[in-house]
Design brief:
3-stranded antiparallel β-sheet, about 100 residues, Ybab, Chain: A, 2 helices, alpha+beta
Length: about 100
């Protein structure tokens, strides 16, 4: 009984290790999003951390457009990052647990 519990705890620790490794890996995966036909470009990590925002100077004349384009570009990048994040975390979980 205790052997099974010990084995299960070891497997859970192994799974935790794989999840932590995946999180670190996700910090090095960069995802781009853009809007306004390229007037606004953002880069985020697969862990959904904003790394860069690039604005075409032409868009700076219209505050509302900048705000709208930023929202669209960020949502575009974050949607892509979420997909990568989910795939990586699912793979990490599968590695760590004997299913």
């Amino acid at each position: 009984m205790f052997g099974d519990m010990s084995k299960m705890m070891g497997q859970l620790q192994n799974a935790q290790k794989h999840v932590e490794e995946a999180k670190e890996r996700l910090n090095s995966i960069f995802v781009d999003g853009s809007s306004g036909s390229g007037l606004v470009h953002v880069t985020v990590t697969a862990n959904r951390e904003i790394k860069k925002i690039d604005l075409n100077p032409a868009v700076l004349e219209d505050k509302e457009a900048v705000e709208d384009y930023l929202i669209l570009a960020l949502n575009d990048a974050l949607k892509k990052a979420d997909k990568i994040n989910e795939q990586e975390m699912a793979a990490a979980a599968k590695k760590g647990l004997p299913f």
